[in-house]
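Researcher: I'm preparing a figure for a lab meeting and need a structural model of a single chain. I don't have an experimental structure, so a prediction will have to do for now. The sequence is pasted below. Please return the structure as tokens so I can convert it later.
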Amino acid sequence: MSGSAPQVWIAASNGRDMIRSDAIVIACLDGGGRVTAQLRDDARATVTLVDGSVGEHPPADFHRQLLRAVAELADSSGAQLVRPVRDDRGWHWVTEPL
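Model: Understood. Here is the structure written out token by token.
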């Protein structure tokens, strides 16, 4: 990320892992309800952001919703966090200042 662009971080649903959005080259939602992000590095590391294999699966476009949320934060000021939440409405992404 450049020094002038805001940093957008993405938290995994496990509450422990966070990655910078500019490190992601591929976001996928598999048939088992798992959202993964492949990182931009030589090892092609993959991070699980949401493991929807237990309980309710995320919506079919959940990975696209993540990309939309990150794109909308491109004009924000300061560091932002995007995290997945599962509540009585189902799965959705929440954004907040970091």
